[in-house]
Amino acid sequence: MLSEATITSRLHTQLLGRVLEYHAHIDSTNTRALALARGGAPEGTVILAEEQTQGRGRLGRRWHAPPDSSLLLSLLLRPPLLPRQAQRITMICSLGAIEAVAHTTSLEAQVKWPNDIVIHGKKLAGVLCELGARGQELAYIVVGMGLNVNLDVAALPELLAPATSLSAELGAPVDRLELLVTLLEAIDRRYARLIAGWSPRDEWRDRLATLGQAVTIRGEGEPITGIAEDVDADGSLCVRTPSGELRTVIAGDVTLRTGHSSSDTNKP
Ligand code: BT5
User: Fold this and answer.
1) Which of 13, 65, 87, 101 lies 20 to 30 Å from 116, alpha-carbon distance?
2) pLDDT of residue 183
3) Rounded to the nearest whole angstrom, what is the distance from the C-alpha of residue 63 to the centroid of ligand 1?
4) pTM over 0.85, yes/no
């Protein structure tokens, strides 16, 4: 079991975890973080849980995690960004997860556009980003992350796509505290840089497993089929269609199909 005291004593961050709640059981860390956000909680608030009874994925889907097996957390941030730039926050969180995985296990994870973290094409973690807007501006963003650490994915029900965990990849259990601390520190560093004007686009692009692949993207209107060529500063995917046209698909607005797998994203 993790505990608030052990996490706080190990954590060296500027912002993340300055308020930290740890729950043995909760409905959903995102639901809790959204309620705190609406109540004016400070950015940097982190909600952690060992077990969720209503763990959420995108578009009403479920997130499954046996007790004590995973990292289940939500971060509350109030970045000076526009709602259409919110994917930048997902980008730094995914990059933080990839860094933490590499540091703790030497495994190399990648991003499956737009929001999944995969190892060898299998889903290791999912990110659920939920926003609040004030007029044209972003009032808050809650980033929920579920990362499979020490679990047998064969026990997970109703998976849309192949999944994996760190212990399954390594054949040995992983220290969740070290992984968590490294994750929060890696995101914290990138968040400070982002606020100072840095774009995570190039680093994120280098970690994208989707580029060069044939994709079909279903959103509003006609599906777009083509080769995923690039991403822009806001994480939108640039797809070269068979007619040679380059179409830009916003991360928050689509269903992606690559090969046999699929994923959907919430509208920001
Ligand atoms: C996601 O949704 O991948 C975002 C998941 C975010 C979960 C975190 S946990 C902490 C925080 N609090 C919450 O309530 N949620 C966040 P999506 O792309 O819609 O993927 C959901 C789909 O992934 C499901 O329909 C399953 O097919 C599959 N799935 C469920 N649990 C999984 C797991 N542990 N590992 C891999 N795939 C899983």
Assistant:
1) 13
2) 98
3) 4
4) yes
